[in-house]
Amino acid sequence: MSSVIPVPADLRARYSRTAEGRAWLAALPGHLAAGLERWNLTLDLPVGAEPWNGHGGIVVPVLRDGQAAVLKVAFPHPEALPESLALMLWDGRGAVRLLEADQATCSMLLERLDAGRWLQDAPLDHARDAWGTVMRQLSIDAGGGPGWEAFEHAAAKAERWSDELPADWEQLGRPFPRWLLEAALEVCQTRGAVGRRAGKDVLVHADLHFMNVLPLPGSGLPDGGSYRAIDPQPVIGEAEFGVAPVLWNRIAELPQSSPELALLERCNDFSHAAGLDPETARQWSLTREVENALWYAAKPGHEGDLARSLWVASTLAGRTLDGLPAAHELPAPGGAALS
Prior knowledge:
about 350 residues, Phosphorylase Kinase, domain 1, Aminoglycoside 3'-phosphotransferase, Chain: A, domain 2, 6-stranded antiparallel sheet, 9 helices, about 40% helix
């Protein structure tokens, strides 16, 4: 039965580049077939249609006992492995509900959301309010029971970045001014495990951008409580760690007259909508974008992504770098490179 499930071309192209990716693509039909049989599922994919996919997995619409669901099989990378554990802890509160999971194959049976109405296309004020509601729901107090040990702590990331960021910056030929690196390191010192003096630990969805927030099906214009998050990259720490993705997405919609001020205002507005501290969100977002910038600097063909991360990071630091494209010319994450 799995032979009728086509693998989207972009997913196949992405994972055909490495031996590990090719091995996963070869195993994927078997994982899909096993999931269909294990959970007694029926395909709900129209003839000729492709399943959905994100950067790291395939999502197939299915039926179980006549109820709509999706079968997701992810590439077994570190960010995917704790996903089902986080969804289990959220238990449908702010996140897509996990129905079944098989850790050995990174397979999950999830409730089906409305994939055609994500927050990416919603008016920004509506997106802000819905995102804030979801963030509040997701911010459950960190615990010490089964599953929690799988999540890295944001403060531990900051401690690790204190060593890694300067070394990477030197190795990559100092791809941006030192003052921006030092701004990120200052945050690592104040928000890391050693320097941190306050802050509430919660379970954080670290990739809560607009395309990862979808509504439940069957409603008109959904209100904030009708949305659910997908594809978490779960960490433990301050909820403000999760604000960054709404700042590095939809940059083209910032006003051309003063995009730098508007980005800072967006940080404030989204933070307030979620009951968070805007200054803590600004600090974490700055550091996460510096870390992103160094990752992009090491990858040929990511010049546009590098420029975007540097624009966001330096703007959040209060000194937008010279020589970068205008905000509305920066590519969206995963978009085309700058010409």
